[in-house]
Amino acid sequence: MTNDEDEDAVSPRSVFPFLKLPRELRDQIYNHVFSIQDHRSQRALRIERRNLKYFKPSAAAILLVTHHEYLLLNRRVAREALEVLFKNHTVFFSCGSFVLKSLLEKIEQDNGPGRQWLKWLKNIELDWVTFPNLTHYPPDREAGRDEWYWEHDDVEVDVDNVRGAQYNGHYDEYDHEGANYDDNFYDPSDMSLYPSFRQPPTIQAPSANDPFGFANHYPFADPNRDPARDASAEDIATKLDLLVSMEVTPLFTYLASTTFDLVSITIPLYFISRESRHNRSVSRPGYALPLKIRYWVQICVHALMMLSAPHSSGSSTSSTVQEVRVKYLPWDIWASMDPADDLRRIVDTGVWFDQPEYGEGGAREGEGEAFRAVWEGMRAKIPHDERGGRRMGLDAQVMFSPWDGNVDAWRVGDELEIVFTKSATDGVVEE
């Protein structure tokens, strides 16, 4: 037997002919692979802003950026696997709203298969583990400033361990999120990686049409001052509002468009410890919730607005969403050991907190701060005569998820999962 004949005899037995299997069997294999739990941390599964710079839409590129690189065997396998992933499984996106919207828009290119791919997308889960330090928001693109520290003296101060410090329930002095911009500060001079922020205009003399100089008004304090020393809670709240208006609202407007046929959106929401809630309420009236939780409150409001909005075929802002799943998680290990919320009671009595006895001085005072903020946010957006009652035409199924003690699963304690759906009595005003 020649060497060539020997290779031909061995090769069929050494390489499994996967693509010769019927498509139905290949799909079963893809489904099985996507059903295997990924034990990598959410930080390892993040999508970074810099990915936008190099991303060119293809099935393989989408699998790579969503961290399913183990299926990058060839183009045919990538296309088949992507179809199964988008149609049958929850796709995990850990990134900011602008990055996600930009990524999806790149997929939806003209005259390409991307539009069909996005139509396949049914279930998504959102996260953002590299939430930006809003003291540097919006980024100063003109100067290319790269602020890596959030402390004025470049030293992190854990106020939990400083006697007499003003405790705010977070791990730095100023309630800023993250040490730096992380994936949100890649190259501020690259305009394509950021929304079109209005930069502070140069000071001009008042004109006849603007005698008070309102046109030159910049909504934040002097951008040249030190952000960590001078930024107040009100400044950060204003910047959070800007982040929501510039990035979150456009994303959900896009997701509600006819480009998508989304069925389910999963998001995280957090509860803090009892001591943290008390001390934050005392030291920072009006800001009992840490900044990142207030961000996810806004995400939840936008997602539930998609669910409660009527679907009208052909509308540019219609929504096919049938459920919003909220994973209610402990903010940290301290929240797990001494939660501000009684999770078992929430399972029994719900997440609405709309009974008089649940208010000030009641049994549930201070409980469910995140959900109370969600309902307040929705009431601010929905006219009174369109709310469908106190509960905005929504039903909620609350399920308890006990912690199994597995520290490798990146959980720190008991959790709740709340599934919101449109109420069967939609339009009936509740008494």
List the helices and strands and how they pair.
Elements: H1 3-14, H2 23-35, H3 51-54, H4 59-65, H5 75-88, E1 90-94, H6 97-107, H7 114-120, E2 123-127, H8 227-230, H9 233-255, E3 264-271, H10 274-283, H11 291-308, E4 323-330, H12 333-337, H13 343-349, H14 369-381, E5 394-401, E6 415-422
Parallel strand pairs: 1-2, 2-3, 3-4
Antiparallel strand pairs: 4-6, 5-6
Organism: Clathrospora elynae
Protein name: F-box domain-containing protein
Structure description:
This is F-box domain-containing protein. It comes from Clathrospora elynae. It is a single chain. Strands 1-2-3-4-6-5 form a six-stranded mixed β-sheet. Residues 143-186, 199-203, 216-221, 311-316 and 426-431 have low confidence and may be disordered. With 431 residues, the protein is an alpha/beta fold. 34% of the residues lie in helices and 10% in strands. The chain is built from 14 helices and six strands. It has two domains: 18-127, no CATH class; 134-422, no CATH class.
